[in-house]
Design goal:
Blueprint: H1 3-17, E1 19-30, E2 33-39, E3 50-54, E4 61-69, E5 73-79, H2 85-92, E6 98-101, E7 116-121, H3 122-134, E8 140-146, H4 158-161, E9 167-171, H5 181-188, E10 198-204, H6 205-218, E11 226-232
Parallel strand pairs: 7-8, 7-10, 8-9, 10-11
Antiparallel strand pairs: 1-2, 1-6, 2-5, 3-4, 4-5
Helix pairs in contact: 5-6
Length: 240
């Protein structure tokens, strides 16, 4: 097969499997997080879902939760996490750049429940924002841990719609996010209703496991009531 024909076949296959968009805007919203807006029409998205962006060729993709989608543009909020291809892409991408990505996917989405509990850190907060917004006036509780106060982003306007005893912020102040005992302790301190609701727990894998263990073992929640999404853990690749 001639090289030019092979390239044409490869591009046609990529066009069937991936979406092509253009970066419309990039700005820094916290010291470690960038807002990246990408043109994309005709997609179907449920709050909490993600896309896989080709950060360094089609074989090197990184997963990012969608903060918002208006039918024409995707808004991503990308945390500069480590020094890998995803962080390099977020730091160097500019308006006008082409972006190749897979369509919205994932089952980490809200479901009917007496109330909803969101627990996680910076990597989880981007998924939580649209999930909370979509719940409207449903009862919501939250525990979110970030490094410092400057790393907070508005999470579905939680601050505006929840009394102080339903929303807890924790600050690590330089301590590791992995195996975060302070996040688990904050969940232990929550005054939740007597019956289980639905928990959405995301972020570092070992911390996610510890929070789930507390809800299941100590509070007696059914495992099916705790939805988990381990985005990362030190020394491992392939988590999302």
């Amino acid at each position: 097969m001639p090289l030019s024909h092979a390239r044409g076949v490869g591009r046609a296959l990529a066009d069937r499997l991936f979406v092509r968009g253009t970066v419309e805007d990039v700005d820094q919203i916290t010291r470690r997080m960038r807002r990246i807006t990408v043109s994309a029409s005709g997609l179907t998205w449920t709050p909490g879902q993600q896309i896989r962006v080709a950060a360094d060729g089609l074989l090197t993709r990184r997963t990012y939760s969608i903060w918002d989608y208006d039918g024409a543009s995707l808004e991503l909020r990308v945390l500069e996490h480590g020094e890998g291809p995803g962080t390099r892409w977020a730091r160097t991408v500019r308006p006008g750049d082409d972006v190749v990505f897979g369509g919205p996917e994932g089952t980490f989405v809200t479901r009917p429940s007496p109330y909803h509990l969101f627990v996680g850190e910076e990597t989880a907060s981007v998924a939580f924002g649209p999930m909370v917004r979509a719940l409207g006036d449903a009862p919501v509780y939250g525990v979110i841990e970030v490094d410092t106060h400057q790393d907070r982003i508005e999470v579905g306007a939680l601050e505006n719609r929840l009394p102080l005893d339903r929303l807890t912020w924790r600050y690590r102040e330089g301590a590791p996010a992995a195996s975060s005992a302070t996040l688990v302790a904050a969940v232990r301190e929550l005054d939740l209703p007597g019956e289980p609701g639905t928990a959405y727990v995301a972020g570092e894998a070992r911390t996610v496991q510890a929070v789930r263990d507390h809800l299941v073992r100590d509070r007696g929640w059914p495992r099916r009531a705790v939805l988990t999404k381990p985005f990362w853990t030190p020394g491992k690749k392939g988590l999302e």
